[in-house]
Amino acid sequence: MSGKHGKFKRRDIRELIQGEYGLKIYNMHEGDKGVLVYTDCGDKFFKKIKKDESQVLFIASAYNHIKDRGFKNVSAICKTKDGRYYSRYDGSLYILEDSMRGKYFSIDSEEDGRKIGEEMARFHEAADCFIPETGSRAKVDWGRWIDKLKVQSMRLNKFKEIAEAKSIKTRFDKMFLKHAYEYCKKSEEAYRILRDNGYMGKVYKSMQTNQLCHKTFKKHSIFTVDNGDIFLTGMENCSYDIIETDLVSLFESCIGSRGLPYLESVISGYSCIRPLDTDSMNIIKALLLQPGRFYKVANIYYGKRKNYNEYELTKKLERSIRKEGRRYEIVKKLEEVME
User: Fold this and answer.
1) Which of these, 1, 31, 108, 250, is most buried using a 10 Å CB contact count?
2) Contact at 8 Å (CB) between 287 and 245?
3) Which residues pair with 35 in a beta bridge?
4) Helical pair 292-302 and 310-338, crossing angle rounded to 10 deg
5) 191-209: b or e for each residue (b if 16 or more CB lie within 10 Å)?
6) pLDDT tens digits, residue range 92-141?
7) Which SS3 state, helix, strand or coil, does residue 218 take?
8) How many angstroms separate the CA atoms of 61 and 85, rounded?
9) DSSP state letter for 233
10) What is the pLDDT of residues 71-95, one digit of tens each?
11) Does the predicted model carry a pTM greater than 0.85?
12) Which of 283, 249, 279 shows the shortest CA–CA distance to 266?
């Protein structure tokens, strides 16, 4: 085991897990996000989590709720022998999650699209009616997008005015202005679509049923295991929200150039279990259309933050423009499906 966990820390981790969780460890392997641990009770993943105890309890109870409602192909956070869902190591909180051997999921066929669509719909059915354990601190995202897009639209236009007013323009300014008009219009359009297509109605419906969402339904959270099943993990950012946000997350991560032809199969797979109406499709379109990555970088440069590296920030702006371009390809495909 190499990298940030040296021999001494490896021994610490082994002793901590065996002592606090009562597991026998056969081997350990360091990954990008934590330590994969092979135990007498199956594979586990030990990772740092930037949450407090009440937030960890919310995540753990979310996993438990979903499994209890019949969705078995999902991870869970292990309890220590004294009933905690976390351990303290090196001054931080760590969790030990169930893990499965497999490969990251990708959408390379209509069958892949249908399969992940159906799996997400079943996940959302199991994640409905969620009441966390007492003492949890819930994460709530209901209704945030309508105000977020309104602010984004206003600030992008303000940043455009600031850049245009400069007598000497930096490379960042020139690159920003080259795309600013287009993204200001997209931000305004995304806000109008949400406002006029039942976004708040979807929020109220989700609130009535206590709908929980994964929030990072991306490649690194979706595995294809040896028997062909899909296994879900990575719910550290789960929150109360509308289901359309998870579909957007999936499209952003798994619908690349190879997966784009199969977007319709994802929607069909989902809809055969939980039908998506026109408002849902328009909300998904709006959330894909809004230039969030471009705005985030511009907000650092033209906002109040001053401790940035201009060269690195310019590179980030370039990357954000490429990513926004890929998202817009998904929007165009989605519009074809909606016709």
Assistant:
1) 250
2) yes
3) 30, 46
4) 150
5) bebbeebbbeebbeebeee
6) 999 999 988 888 898 999 999 999 999 999 999 999 999 999 999 999 99
7) coil
8) 10
9) -
10) 999 999 999 999 999 999 888 999 9
11) yes
12) 249
